[in-house]
């Protein structure tokens, strides 16, 4: 069986990281276009560095939850199986899936990663210090001022799209967890699965893409996923 799991901010909500669209369009008290767009970064780089430094610092105060751990259990089970394949694609920039039991290479962070920075000249990606700013020296060009957070901002192209499209084409089970279905192209993934695919949405509420799913499990991901994954794995074995 080919399984694709798409996660969004809702899966980390129980860990204490705020979601995006439940707070009047503001992200941690900032207009999204100020802190999550190339234009916002050119206008006020210091604000943007400060904002992501705070998000990165927040990661030290939170922990993965049962939903992250259940997904890791499923993916690791499939890694040891010759019959099944499961891939996680996350819109989240936190590292809670990794802390929940997955290896870095098992998590496709389509919107980037808080713990990484990128040289704007060479496009090389590095681990970010906790505090990144315009004075941080770039490990590749040894200059200051070239580094930015390794985050996909509005108007930029997400990572892993081609890989995702090719998996979605042959997907048998598509699991969407804690995402509002507002942001494309992730919101479109469910519609790219074949007709034979079972599409399951786990969310606190209905979303604008709910009608495309075959099954809705309403509630907290951390309450639903542990039993859901155990049952699924029984069926896989
Ligand atoms: N369990 C399940 N779902 C939850 C939970 C929970 N405990 N808590 C909240 N949710 C749901 C909400 O009902 C909502 O539908 O998670 C969803 C979170 O939606 P958004 O805040 O819009 O987050 P997301 O879908 O990940 O946003 C996509 O938008 O600005 C960006 O780049 C950013 O990756 C992000 C993208």
Order of helices and strands: EHEEHHHHEHEEEEHEEEH
- Basic shape: globular
CATH class descriptor name of the largest domain: Alpha Beta
| Percent of sequence in beta strands | 15-25%
Descriptive overview:
The structure is a single chain. By secondary structure, the protein is an alpha/beta fold. It folds into two domains: 145 residues, Rossmann fold; 80 residues, SIR2/SIRT2 'Small Domain', CATH 3.30.1600. Helices cover 30% and strands 21% of the residues. The chain contains eight helices and eleven strands. The strands form three sheets. A six-stranded parallel beta sheet has the order 5-4-1-9-10-11, with helices on both faces. A three-stranded antiparallel beta sheet has the order 7-6-8. The protein has a two-stranded antiparallel ribbon with strand order 2-3. Helix 5 runs parallel beside helix 8. The radius of gyration is 18 Å and the shape is globular. Adenosine-5-diphosphoribose (APR) binds next to helix 1 and strand 10.
């Amino acid at each position: 069986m080919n399984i694709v799991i798409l996660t969004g901010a809702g899966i980390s909500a129980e860990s204490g990281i705020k979601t995006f669209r439940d707070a009047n369009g503001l992200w941690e008290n900032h207009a999204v276009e100020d802190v999550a767009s190339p234009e916002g970064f050119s206008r006020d780089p210091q604000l943007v560095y400060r904002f992501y430094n705070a998000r990165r610092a927040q990661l030290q105060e939170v922990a993965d939850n049962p939903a992250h751990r259940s997904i890791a259990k499923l993916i690791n089970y499939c890694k040891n199986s010759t019959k099944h394949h499961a891939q996680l694609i996350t819109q989240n920039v936190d590292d809670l899936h990794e802390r929940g039991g997955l290896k870095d290479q098992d998590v496709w962070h389509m919107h980037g990663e808080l713990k990484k920075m990128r040289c704007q000249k060479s496009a090389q990606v590095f681990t970010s210090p906790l505090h990144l700013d315009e004075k941080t020296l770039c490990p590749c060009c040894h200059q200051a001022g070239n580094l930015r957070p390794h985050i996909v901002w509005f108007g930029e192209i997400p990572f892993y799209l081609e890989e995702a499209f090719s998996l979605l084409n042959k997907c048998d089970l598509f699991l969407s967890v804690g995402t509002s279905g507002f942001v494309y192209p992730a919101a479109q993934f469910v519609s790219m699965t074949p007709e034979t695919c079972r599409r399951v949405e786990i969310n606190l509420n209905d979303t604008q893409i709910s009608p495309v799913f075959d099954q809705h499990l309403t509630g907290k991901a951390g309450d639903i996923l542990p039993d859901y994954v155990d049952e699924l794995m029984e069926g896989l074995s």
